[in-house]
Design goal:
- Two copies of one chain form a homodimer.
- In chain A, 57% of the residues lie in helices and 6% in strands.
- Chain A starts with a helix and ends with a helix.
- In chain A, strand 1 and strand 2 form a beta hairpin.
- Chain A has 143 residues and is mostly helical.
- In chain A, helix 1 packs across helix 4 and helix 4 packs across helix 6.
- Chain A contains seven helices and two strands.
- The longest helix of chain A has 16 residues.
- The first copy, chain A, binds a DNA duplex (30 and 30 nucleotides) through helix 3.
Chain lengths: 143, 143
DNA sequence: GACTATTCTTACCGGCAAAGTTGGAAATTG
DNA sequence: CAATTTCCAACTTTGCCGGTAAGAATAGTC
């Protein structure tokens, strides 16, 4: 049960933007370099993040990306939902009709609960949290 | 973030065994038929479940599988761990050394929390719970 | 002891989605 | 207009997951 790289990359990129919040644009290559994410790949992610409004992007020289809203307003559940799409752990949760046993399936509830648990954790964590923790950690590491 | 079929199959097979607990063996083909799981595939799962002790299997005529312990003692976290193997959502949780940023990575904690949340839900549900719920549901469906 | 039924073991396969690449089109700036 | 950067779409690659196949081991039965 893995978190797809997209999400990992996405979160890291967004944290990077959060750390830079209020200080202008960051360009894809910068983020990619700092987080060692394949640049071309990250580019795709950035545009989907832009399309949804989590990020605001500008092209051309001095272009780049900034957060679309305050770091406190963006939580990881959003990111997950956008970049991973199908959130639920099993087909039959999203499409109960596809399962013959749907009506009398004891497991359904559990997987649903699992999904909620995940979403719970993620929606409780904002980019602000992560950014703050990040600065602490790098400060520690520097010492 | 999907639950692999293995796990779904495994749980369903085990519930089937739980429903049959104390009434002798169940053979792979029976379980496969009732839950419409590809038989050959299920066979593999059963043997790994056997190897770990969740199931006790006997070959030869009148062979088959029974639960290795009481339904109350088997929870879904066990099943998940056995059949999914790598439980944690991201490489860097299982192998922190493989990640350059490990020491100053703000996200690690979250993915760990997510893993714990999942494990929490799963370890709170036993086969007994599921079996009981199952009988209720089928009774309802019959009406 | 031969026969049969069942699990065990191993090796293989196909498909599909995820990760990543490439090339070019659209903006934006100076 | 030239340079820079994002955007877009199509393509390639790779790994793994779900499933298949076939034979070996084991356990009962007559």
């Amino acid at each position: 049960m893995r978190v797809p790289m997209k999400v990992d990359y996405g979160v890291r990129a967004l944290v990077e933007l959060a750390l830079h919040y209020g200080q202008g644009q960051l360009q894809t290559w910068e983020i990619a370099a700092r987080q060692s994410i394949p640049e071309a790949y990250l580019e795709q992610l950035m545009t989907t993040l832009n399309k949804v409004g989590l990020v605001r992007s500008r092209r051309g020289p001095q272009g780049g990306h900034i957060l679309g809203m305050a770091p406190e307003e963006i939580n990881l559940s959003m990111v997950m939902n956008i970049l991973d799409g199908n959130f639920s752990p099993l087909e039959c949760i999203t499409y109960p009709n596809d399962c013959v046993f749907a009506e009398s399936c004891a497991q359904q509830e559990i997987w649903r609960t699992v999904a909620e648990a995940i979403q719970g954790v993620l929606s409780n964590t904002t980019l602000a949290d992560l950014a703050q923790r990040q600065t602490k950690l790098t400060a520690q590491a520097a010492r």
